[in-house]
Amino acid sequence: MAKGIDPNIDLHFQDQVEHLGPEQEVVINLQEGASDSALQGIAGLKVAEVRDGSIKATASRAAASELLARPDVQRVMPVARPKMLSVLLRLRNPAWDKSIPGFERGSQIGNILTGQATRDAIQILANDADVISVEASREGGTPSCFQSIPFVMGVPPAGPPLSEKGGGVLVALIDSGVDVLHDAFKDSQGRTRLVGIWDQTSAAGDTPAAAAAKGNTAGAAYNARYGRFHSEQDINGYLTANAVPGDLKRDPDQHGTHVASIMAGSPFTPPAPQPAFPGGLAPEARILLVKAKTTTAPGDPASIGYSRSHVDALAFIKETARALGMPVAVNVSLGMNAGAHDGTSLLEVAFDEFSSGGREPGLIVVKSAGNEHSHGGHAETVVPHGGTATIGWTTKTAFRTQDYLEFWSASGDELEFTVTGPGVSASVTRKSPRAQANLPGTAGTLYLAYERFYQDNGDARLIVIVRNNAGTSISVAGNWALAIRGAKVISGGVVHGWVERINLSPRPLAFTTGMVAARTLSIPGTARTVVCVGACDLSTPVAVQSFSSQGPCRDDRRKPDLVAPGHNIIAAGAGTQNGTVAMPGTSMAAPHVTGAVALVLAHRKRQGLDQVNAAQVRAGLTQSTKGFSGVWRQAEGFGCLDVQTFFDLFA
Amino acid sequence: MALLSLNLDPKRASTHAFVVGVGTYPHLDGGSTPNTTLELGLGQLSSPPLSAQRFIRWLLEEFHNDKAPLATIEHLISAPHQVQDKQGKNQPSEEPTFANLETAYKRWIDRASENEDNIAIFYFCGHGMAKGAETALLAADFGNPAVARLTKNAIHLEDTVKGMFACKANQQCFFIDTCRTKDERLEKLMSSAGEPLGEASADDVRVVQQPVIFASSLTQRALAQDGAVSAFTQSLIEALDGMAADDDAQGSFAPGECVVKTELLCRAIRESLELQRLEKPWLGGPECTDGGGGSFHLHFPQRPVRVPLLMKCEPAEVETAVTLSITRDGSLISERTGASGPWLTWQEPSFYKLAATLANGQKEEKTLMHFPAIKKCGFKFNTAPLS
């Protein structure tokens, strides 16, 4: 690949195999505690084997769709790598609009453009003078909801007794869905409070672009050509019928419904003995949902991937806010582990571009910090000059599509890397930056790709991938070690490693040596303008939750910015008319902050004051925490959200 | 019509090839007009057009049979791929829809029928599946929602082979580079494995050599590296180039004196696939299968035959400490020192002395009759001392 091309693209296509016949192997991940025996009898599903809570199977599209609708199923992932890859382009000229065969244009935020491309098209893009770089949109993204904690001592969302209720502003969430039939999302007249839904996962109905062409988007000029758009009118129709289309569902994952109701749910009375739900923080704000598609589904011609899903979502949200003439606070609760953690990736830059680098008023993004504190997802070591340091990890037998790790270091250090695993070993150096080796038999292949000067930050990156090129899943269990020799260490010799999350419990891939709790924030919470939120309880002094990811960023920027209640929050339970459920996680903390931001935006709009921007909001949030002392700590940031003080700061 | 015509002389026996490479399936996943009601897990392919082009190039550059020289190649390869003629000029091909396949097939058997000593070669690379024990080869327009029968745009291979009794050529061979996996949904959706491209009457039945070489056994997948010639076609060409050569009782493998018999192809292809898997174990699985149907002398290699020679040492720890050497008539042909893994070289058929020598002087020697399809030679050392 030419300069400026993410090596992940090359690795994606390398040694790719196609079957001259049907290709349907999928890996199914169940929710914790669920049993595979419950899947018996699903037409079109053939379970081959179950290991460590993961299932290897073949599934038709219909079967996959049925599986995904089940509350006990977390993911259904096809193993074969798609032939078109979703990418993010960094443009030299934002007006670039060339037509490249094999490249389908997606959304654009600033000079970041999304799309999907064939291998040939990526080569053409790489040679285009107006394209600075091309990055793969990797699959990933798991909710920052820590579901293994028992639901005890739940507390309702901590909203302040303010007269401001968030009317006239938009809150948006990129999440698993929202149960639009739940009372939390109806106004006092029984109408929906959602202004629209973009279901990126659906192949039925009008895409946002098609809906815009028909004039069904209230003036918003959407250009997304995948997924399904549900207008406010459509959703009110669902309320009348008391049923939703089969592809939309009532958020079987429950995550998005819970988050949205904390952020902006209407008050409702659940069945006894549950206490009344007092409403979310901004119970009169309008709500916009993007149901995110972060993994490929069986039958998809192309992967969307986390980066593209979220950049396209931001473009959609921004256009909706423009058409409505409303400021918007966006809540993001899905994150990724692997990456530079320094805010320089195209994904993070796109999040910054959403608000023009934090300067454009009325456009704020809030991201949960992640629940990675104790998952062994980050390791750190210092390599001495002339010596060797080792980082170890272990893998389990669970079926998965691949193992993916990234290691970052200063490019000034000359390091030599050797990865050793069960029956396999491979090495890379500056002079020999690519290596691969086959595991015994047909268990899989180990790939190493090292770049001394990574295009986005000038740092050095080592990618480690284990996968099976035959289009079958891997199930490699054993101990692995990365031995790093310091051939010439003059820039500190610090090496950080991150594993990409595989949302199984226990995680099938985790560091065993060198692991540290610091720098476990999930991306894009590491973007410069994004408000990054950890989870705490309501005790005094504040207790940060044991799962909450910690900072700082790899470049030592101070994140998380603050913490908010994320310990067993009681909010709307999807699939019910007015039920509640308690959930813990930084996913539940972030919407407290998003809702608080919506209140400030609404107040300033109503008062005719100049609207605040993301830079001002971030500063205000961190300086209005309870007992603010100016001291930043890696777990709690600048302290716990104080909605009243924050509101008063901008009133 | 997409035809490469070389030596079209109906008065003399000749070889006529029918080559199909389907990569674009508009009605399958990722196609321009996908049939969303189909549930077959079938998508677009990059390899078949390249594989078909590679086979055509082999026919043009290497195929040699004095009794039946190559006369025509009827080719149907998914756009935008083109076919290079013998002069190296790109010629447009024809889209491999079922209708185009049917009419091209008719033209092909008409030409092949002009002389009973003709050879007819059928090559298909694309999606395939098994229904029962029968094979469906999917044409480019398979799954067209405008057609009520799913069987309509699939070729029933076995019935097509039977239909080839109508072709007067007494030497016919079929190379089928597809999966033959069984799919429950297909079994339900299709009443048969497709339709034959032609049919024969009872009067046509006679002794005809009709070997069928499959890329995969029944229920198996066929594999290809994305954007490259398929594993089977690559191995088929290696087999034709010499791994399937026979001295035909002449005692010589010299160019023009040895012959590739179709009965030897399957074993040679299997061995070649094994060699591919040495570097790419993920190509494991498919096994070339001989569908039977007789044998004939297909090709007479004109280039020197080279046969793979695979040497390895046990235990594996000694590999990097051993020197492997190949000598013939007292002359050193090749040598390898200090490398790990098996050593693969290609040598002309002959008698060789092979030796493995440790640095401490410990030596193992073997004399080898090196003839197609492959020779594998292992050296075992009991010793631990490597210095």
Could you walk me through the main structural features you see in this protein, from its secondary elements to its overall organization?
The complex is a heterodimer of chains A (651) and B (387). With 651 residues, chain A is of the alpha+beta class. Chain A has eleven helices and 32 strands. In chain A, strand 7 (103-109) and strand 8 (112-117) form a beta hairpin. The termini of chain A are far apart. With 387 residues, chain B is an alpha+beta fold. Chain B has six helices and 23 strands. In chain B, the strands form six sheets. Chain B has a seven-stranded mixed β-sheet, sandwiched between helices. In chain B, strand 21 and strand 22 (363-370) form a beta hairpin. Chain B is globular, with a radius of gyration of 23 Å. Classes of the chains: A alpha+beta (651), B alpha+beta (387). Chain A binds chain B through residues 13, 15-24, 44, 46, 58, 60-62, 83-84, 119, 203, 298-302, 438, 441-442, 445, 468-470, and chain B through 29-30, 34, 36, 39-48, 125-129, 177-181, 183-186, 215, 221-227, 230, 280-285.
Short description:
The complex is a heterodimer of chains A (651) and B (387). With 651 residues, chain A is of the alpha+beta class.
Largest sheet of chain B: 7 strands, mixed
Helix content of chain A: 10-25%
Largest interface: A-B, 33 and 43 residues
Shape of chain A: globular
Give the low-confidence spans of chain A. 145-154
Ends apart, CA distance between termini of chain B = 68 Å
Distance between the termini of chain A: 53 Å
Structural class of the helices, strands and pairings of chain B?
Answer: alpha+beta
Radius of gyration of chain A: 23 Å
> Into which percent range does the helicity of residues of chain B fall?
10-25%
Beta-strand percent range of chain B: 25-35%
Structural class computed from helices and strand pairing of chain A:
alpha+beta
Let me know the number of strands of chain B: 23
Structural Rg of chain B: 23 Å
Label the overall shape of chain B: globular
- Strand percent estimate of chain A: 25-35%
- Rounded mean pLDDT score of chain B: 91
The beta-strand count of chain A equals 32
Order of strands side by side in the largest beta sheet of chain A?
A: 13-12-14-11-15-17-29-30
Q: Please describe the biggest sheet of chain A, giving its number of strands, its sense, and whether it closes into a barrel.
A: 8 strands, mixed
